[in-house]
Design goal:
CATH architecture: Alpha-Beta Complex
Number of helices: 6
Number of domains: 1
CATH topology: Maf protein
């Protein structure tokens, strides 16, 4: 049975490659919801589901994984910045504070769908305006939820991570591998 990752994220692709599982990538081409789907975890799982479902329809004999990651501060989702000013403002808000990163996972296979949300706490140290300006000028924050990439230039901003580091990058590998092992065992007996 083929494994299909329903994601355009190069970071998710790179993370999944480290597991040793063979997989294909197919991009859903659906518009993600930004609000109106309940809690941040419910929104992440909803977006993972619509991405995974669109790709699963193209690969009905596969095990398809959809994923979506959101950054939450004070109960509100920080999406991808709309412009440089928005990125700068998000990073100022994150400075010296704890945020939560939630990745929704949706698994599609011939027996149905399974969804889960993985939560990680991230604490930023206090950032200077010059640090924020330099990071924003690098362009890195512009395509990332919460305007930061822990695996890149923002690594030095992070004081503490409680939970899955790879979740903050975009794909919680321990949970993904655990599901793949479980599904492999289940599939062996079907």
């Amino acid at each position: 049975m083929d494994l299909v990752l329903a994601s355009a994220s190069p970071r998710r692709r790179e993370l999944l490659e480290t597991t040793g599982y063979a997989f294909k990538v197919d991009v859903a081409g659906v518009e993600e919801a930004c609000t109106g789907k309940g809690s941040p975890a419910e929104l992440a799982m909803y977006n993972a589901e619509i991405k995974g479902e669109a790709v699963f329809r193209q690969h009905p004999d596969s095990l398809t994984l959809g994923a979506d990651t959101v950054v939450v501060l004070d109960g509100k989702i920080l999406g991808k910045p709309q412009d440089i000013a928005d990125a700068r403002e998000m990073l100022h808000r994150l400075s010296g504070r704890e945020n939560e990163v939630i990745t929704g996972l949706a698994w599609f296979h011939h027996t149905g769908i399974e969804k889960v949300a993985v939560h990680t706490k991230v604490v930023f140290r206090n950032l200077t305006a010059d640090e924020i300006d330099a990071y924003v000028a690098s362009g890195e924050p512009m395509d990332k939820a919460g305007a930061y990439g822990i695996q890149g230039g923002a690594a030095g901003f992070v004081q503490q991570v409680t939970g899955s580091y790879t979740n903050v990058v975009g794909l919680p590998l321990a949970e993904v591998v655990q599901h793949l092992h479980r599904f492999s065992e289940l599939h062996r007996y079907l």
